[in-house]
Amino acid sequence: MGSKLLDGVGVSTSRIGMRVWRQLGDFRSVLTSDYHVAPGLPPRPLLRELSRIVDREIKPHRGLIGRWQDPRSYRRLVSRFGPQIEVRAHPYRRGAGLDLWGFSCMVPARSGGKFLIFVNSAHERGALAATIGHELGHYIYGAIGRGRWLAQAMESTFAAHLASESELFSDSVVALSTFSIAIVRELVGRWRSDGATRELSFDRLRRAFELADPRFRIDLTRPSLAAPWRIRYLTWMVHFFKLRCALFDTAEV
User: Fold this and answer.
1) What pairing do the DSSP bridges indicate for beta strands 84-90 and 114-120?
2) For residue range 107-117, what is the model confidence (pLDDT) as tens digits?
3) 152-155 and 100-107: which strand pairing?
4) Average pLDDT of the segment spanning 214-222
5) 151 contacts 103 by C-beta, under 8 angstroms
6) With contact defined as beta carbons under 8 Å apart, do 175 and 50 qualify?
7) Quick one: angle between helices 165-178 and 227-251, nearest 10?
């Protein structure tokens, strides 16, 4: 199954270097993991509360792309939870910097603190939206009392998120924002009615992202996109779609 997905985005395992082979480890872990029983999967009541927050405070506002550095984009979240949100960006394309998608931390201030989100703008626009959504997840997670606002980095090792409630909670913000429950219900219902397995083929993944919120889409077939980026973003797509299906199956959101 993994080789078919790679073939679908034009990556041949016989023509890649050692650096890309290392990235394949995370891809294979994400592909083979059962997200329904992930140790870090938040409990159902928490996921349902998060779903309500995403529907009311995040989805109605289009600030994640285009105006994502405008503080007004997060006005509703701030009015509900308190700390101000500030987003900064800079492109890091070399070495370990490329593995960084972004990070967040709480910066002390006289007015009560500011939640700072940093984004590596070297990535695709869909990845920028996912990074901001993920870091907003950490903001919400701390605001509702599940943990302290600690410095959190988002890197391209999604399999490691499966054991952490705070990371999967934050990823759930992206999954819920990317795929509506109507889309997931349609896809899952179609598979079941056809008597098909839940195996994730490239056609199914592509169809899911064709129906997804356009802010989170990434074109993996673009000729100018190098193999390391294709694998990184393919892992991203598999991770968030499998998580979204798990949220639907386990918490009915």
Assistant:
1) parallel
2) 887 666 789 99
3) antiparallel
4) 87
5) yes
6) no
7) 90
Q: Where are the domains of the chain?
A: 2-251
* CB of 217 closer than 8 Å to CB of 209: yes
- 137 contacts: CB under 8 Å, gap ≥ 6: 50, 169, 170, 171, 172, 173, 174
Given strand 100-107, what is the order of strands in its sheet?
Answer: 84-90, 114-120, 100-107, 152-155
| pLDDT classification of 226: cutoffs 50, 70, 90 | confident
Whole-prediction pTM: 0.90
pLDDT recorded at residue 139 = 94
